[in-house]
Sequence to fold (303 residues):
Amino acid sequence: MTIIRVALIGMGVVGKYFFAALKQSPNFKIVAICDKKNDISETSCSFYRSYQELCADEVVMKSVDAAIICLPNHLHVLCAQDFLSKGKHVLCEKPLCFTIADAAMLQVLANERHLTLMTAFHRRYNFHFKKFHEAIDEPIKVIHARYLENIKQHSDSDWYLYNAKSGGGCVIDNGSNVFDLIRLLVGEISIERAYMGGYAGENESHAYIDFSFKTGRGTIELDWNFDGECKDISVYTANKSHHADLIAETKHDIRTVNFKGSLWHEYEDCIRDFYEHVIGKISFDNEDVVRCVNQCYTEAKQN
Fold:
């Protein structure tokens, strides 16, 4: 069995879920961790204060097969570019980047080197979503998705408040996951209208998006200032309706006792899928969600 040796870049909120998933997987070995704080009791790998420090260590870099990037959004592009340029596979937390041009540049770089570049759209691995998706057996006519949360409960820092670091608010953050789920259901979508408002620092805190697809239409509601937690998706076909509550407590995993609980199994399946893409040399579409996000910001400016 091939074991992929990983450098984990960033140990913030998301990094800790990746760390737990990697530690219990037989397919991966953590050989390096990069983070400003050394608060992980992990002695079997090398530790660095920055990914640049790791990249400068030629000896350890020779033992790295892939990098998993969990940094603030504005650092994703340069970090992914550096690791791809050094011949490493990359799994990057969403959003991969802010612009379509950067997404295309990274994909070309990965393709030229026969490397896997994959965005960690973790909600596609949600137990409830997968069960819901499997149950849909006829063309979808209508979709309604909601992703409502209090962003302060999901971050251990305030970088997301600043547009230069985050690239936007709830649309680029939560919207990226929602667009990925909808694309899995119906394929390519077109943004018809996008309305944004509210403030979370310099960014939008809520948005309402109308979109169309080959067989129907849909809406997306996003909110960063919601009092509580609501993440669900409903679809309607000619004869049936289907609903998935993405954060409902699941019977198969005792850890899912709160709204963050589903992240455990989602990131476990995320790295399992990454492994399959690397070993099987399977391509991954990173660009279309970036396109959807950019279309939303363009439409919102026009409105």
In short: Residues 262-280 form the longest helix (19 residues).
